[in-house]
């Protein structure tokens, strides 16, 4: 797989103009203009850059998953370093919007460099892009214009700090808008929870729990057609619990049934549930139920 260590080499590959700054590039369509079109197709590639792009598709169709979106046809997409990218020429379109690319080293030694990892949307798939209302779109475009002004001007000792400050503001707004998107799609959130619970239940019923241990959440998310981070963030926003917490709840419910079999020790129950260490099972059970597995078994017998 081809990997690009510099921003310039990555833009060269895309057949885009060289950047004004060795670690930052800004493309912004204005008026009747369109964004420069990258190469029509590419095998899997990676690079060391972050990308923030807003695309309005003017000609051609582009499906963003199975969800019907209520806002404009503009989508804000975030890509992190070393994320695998691949596209083909099955869709022909012209696009308006903007694209900001910056090397990860551009943030080194800054507060944003430490904080950017917390933004889970850099790990989302394309079909989980942020769709903006017209008002939100104007807010984002205003920030990008400020970045572009600094980018195009003769850069001085203040330029980098100002650009990074604007990037920080853009990401904070994106975080807020994603919260809105999660809340506006409660039906989708509920559907994801139902699908997740169904996948876990099928895993339990298939006997894989005893053979392979606890299910891999990334594999479950893949079976559902969403990214692991998006699934966890969506469920957290809607239910207050992450995918791991929902998995633990199902494990505890399964444990309750098995604990009622008096011929099995606590260790045997733990191993049957896929726990490598019985102590971990006991700690998790007590954390979720307030009593130990032994106490639960004794309490049930009393009742």
Automatic annotation (TrEMBL):
Domain HTH araC/xylS-type as annotated: residue spans: 198-299
Annotated keywords: DNA-binding, Transcription, Transcription regulation
Listed GO MF terms: DNA-binding transcription factor activity; sequence-specific DNA binding
Pfam families (UniProt xref): HTH_18
Name of this chain's protein: AraC family transcriptional regulator
């Amino acid at each position: 797989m081809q990997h690009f260590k510099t921003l310039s080499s990555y833009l060269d590959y895309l057949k885009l103009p060289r950047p004004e700054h060795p670690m930052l590039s800004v493309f912004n369509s204005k008026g009747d203009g369109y964004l420069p079109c990258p190469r029509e197709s590419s095998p899997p590639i990676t690079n060391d850059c972050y990308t923030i792009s807003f695309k309005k598709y003017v000609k051609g169709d582009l499906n963003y998953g199975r969800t019907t979106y209520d806002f404009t046809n503009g989508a804000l997409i975030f890509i992190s370093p070393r994320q695998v990218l691949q596209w083909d020429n099955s869709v022909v379109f012209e696009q308006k919007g903007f694209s900001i690319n910056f090397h990860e080293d551009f943030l080194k030694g800054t507060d944003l460099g430490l904080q950017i990892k917390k933004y889970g949307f850099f790990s989302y798939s394309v079909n989980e892009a942020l769709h903006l209302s017209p008002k939100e779109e104007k807010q984002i475009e205003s920030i990008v214009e400020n970045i572009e002004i600094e980018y195009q001007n003769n850069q001085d000792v203040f330029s980098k700090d100002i650009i990074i400050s604007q990037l920080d503001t853009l990401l904070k707004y994106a975080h807020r808008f994603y919260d809105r998107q999660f809340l506006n799609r409660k039906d989708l959130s509920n559907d994801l929870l139902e699908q997740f619970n169904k996948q876990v239940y099928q895993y339990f019923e298939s006997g894989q729990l005893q053979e392979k241990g606890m299910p891999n959440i990334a594999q479950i998310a893949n079976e559902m057609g969403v990214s692991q981070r998006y699934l966890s963030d969506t469920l957290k926003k809607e239910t207050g619990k992450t995918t791991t917490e929902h998995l633990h709840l199902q494990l505890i419910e399964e444990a309750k049934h098995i604990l009622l079999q008096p011929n099995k020790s606590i260790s045997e129950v733990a191993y049957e549930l896929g726990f490598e260490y019985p102590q971990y099972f006991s700690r998790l059970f007590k954390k979720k139920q307030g009593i130990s597995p032994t106490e639960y078994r004794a309490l049930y017998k009393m009742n």
